[in-house]
Write a structure and sequence with these properties.
The structure is a single chain. 31% of the residues lie in helices and 19% in strands. With 155 residues, the chain is α/β, with parallel strands linked by helices. It has a single domain, classed as SPOUT methyltransferase, trefoil knot domain (Alpha/beta knot). The protein has a seven-stranded parallel beta sheet. The radius of gyration is 15 Å and the shape is globular. It starts with a strand and ends in a 6-residue tail after the last helix.
Length: 155
């Protein structure tokens, strides 16, 4: 099972777009508080359109609470422009629960998370002088590469 984890997302439209990607690929969505918007925010709902009914969403009050729920066998994949490894060298196995973890739009994952999980940090290739991709675009790139490797089992 694949889950997208948004740690402290700030922009409701991005979260709505990620939810839409999750809905069409049968991917779970996990939101880690604090959020920069209310979960019933109108722009959040508008971005997800009528897909919300098809998204399995869970919430955690903090990143530490999310991590306490993880099992040793879970695969944690942190996305950051500071990652040492190129995501396209990542190999999906589809056998264990996998979590693609993204930070907030303004500053990404905190340095404490990046430092603690540095061996699990990946980057999406881009120009060296570019700051980063949009959060929802990054999530879509990652989800589709994962499922491409598994032969798109949802279709």
């Amino acid at each position: 099972m694949l889950s997208i984890v948004l740690v402290e997302p700030e922009i409701p439209q991005n979260t709505g777009n990620v939810a839409r990607t999750c809905a069409v690929t049968s991917t779970d969505l996990i939101l880690v508080h604090p959020l920069g918007f209310r979960i019933d925010d109108r722009s959040l709902k508008r971005a997800g359109l009528d897909y919300w009914k098809d998204v399995r969403i869970s919430e955690y009050p903090s990143f530490s609470a999310f991590m306490q729920d993880r099992k040793e066998s879970d695969e944690l994949v942190f996305f950051t422009s500071h990652g040492k490894r190129d995501f396209y060298s990542f190999r999906a196995d589809g056998k264990r629960d996998t979590y693609f973890i993204f930070g907030k739009e303004s500053c990404g994952l905190g340095s404490d998370i990046i430092n603690r999980y540095s061996d699990s940090c990946w980057k999406i290739p881009m120009r060296k002088d570019a700051r980063c991709l949009n959060l929802s675009n990054s999530a879509a790139v990652a989800v589709y590469e994962y499922y491409r490797q598994l032969g798109f089992p949802f279709s």
